[in-house]
Design goal:
This protein has 260 residues and is of the alpha/beta class. Helix content is 31%, strand content 27%. Bound molecules: adenosine-5'-triphosphate.
């Protein structure tokens, strides 16, 4: 296990928000985190990359408490794409992605061909090479999201943490970004709202509800109609499509078609 939490708790405003969560992701695998709004997904991700300190319990990286890992060492290992990351509006796309190289460069070291190669490769991977010199603030929401993913890729992390990376993305880019994440072969923890995408792209899924880990396992073990009903209050049926993928169909109480 590369990244793991052991009975982790964290609270704010007098409330326990992450409540005794123990989970682990295997090297090179994708662990999806699902759960209703406010169930603690972002809070848990922030604990995992030490943006917040656990109140109790331990987060480990290769078995070592991350509280004891140096800031630079942690930044070389682990990249985080936040849900609504903002960036200095004066920066260009390329400037933002270059920030991902910071942990790899010695203080005052000059920019190397290797740095440039990593930045270009990251921009290629998210399909934004043509926007290299565009100002970040002039990008659409989905393009900004892809630039932040490129910044994380330029960091060349071994562990990648993504908080709802498909927010703002059209369906083609949702599929391509999650496909890319899978192909990277890095250890990945990703919070997702779309249960079908979680089922398609995650090796394992953890389900958070009111800060507690309610279930964890293979998508077909976890994403059952009973669990979805319990956690999200929604009725579904699950069918296996011609391509062998499982599809979650939401049962809604109105008929499709034109309104009377
Ligand atoms: N610093 C804080 N102070 C007070 N409450 C907080 C703080 N951070 C998070 N919370 C609360 O903790 C709960 C969990 O928030 P979190 O953002 O982790 O949920 P989430 O599962 O990521 O939600 P969503 O799906 O809506 O993004 C929410 O009710 C939120 O208001």
């Amino acid at each position: 296990m590369t990244l793991a939490t052991h009975d982790v708790r964290w609270g704010a405003g007098g409330r326990l928000i992450v409540d005794g969560v123990s989970l682990a992701v295997e090297p090179g695998r994708v662990l999806g985190l699902i759960g209703p709004n406010g169930s603690g997904k972002s809070s848990l991700l922030r604990l995992l990359c030490r943006l917040r300190r656990v109140a109790s319990g331990v987060v480990t990286l290769d078995g070592q408490d991350i509280a004891g890992v140096g800031r630079r060492d942690l930044a070389r290992r682990l990249a985080f794409v936040e849900q609504q990351a903002s960036t200095d509006i004066q920066l260009t796309v390329c400037d933002v992605v270059r920030l991902g190289r910071t942990p790899h460069r010695a203080a005052f070291a000059s920019w190397t061909a290797e740095d440039e190669k990593a930045v270009d490769a990251a921009l290629q991977r998210v399909g934004l090479m043509g926007r290299h010199d565009q100002h970040w603030h002039t990008l659409s929401g989905g393009e900004r999201q892809r630039v932040h993913i490129a910044r994380a890729l330029a960091q060349e992390p071994r562990e990648l943490i993504l908080d709802e990376p498909t927010n703002h993305l059209d369906i083609q880019h949702q599929l391509s970004i999650l496909g890319l994440v899978r192909r990277l072969g890095v250890t990945c923890i990703v919070a997702l709202h779309d249960l079908n995408l979680a089922s398609l792209f995650c090796d394992r899924i953890g389900v958070l509800s009111a800060g507690r880990l309610l279930a964890a396992g293979l998508p077909e073990e976890v994403l059952t109609p009973a669990l979805i009903r319990e956690v999200f209050g929604v009725d579904v049926t699950i069918r296996v499509g011609a391509n062998g993928h499982r599809h979650i169909d939401y049962l809604v109480d109105h008929e499709p078609g034109p309104r009377p």
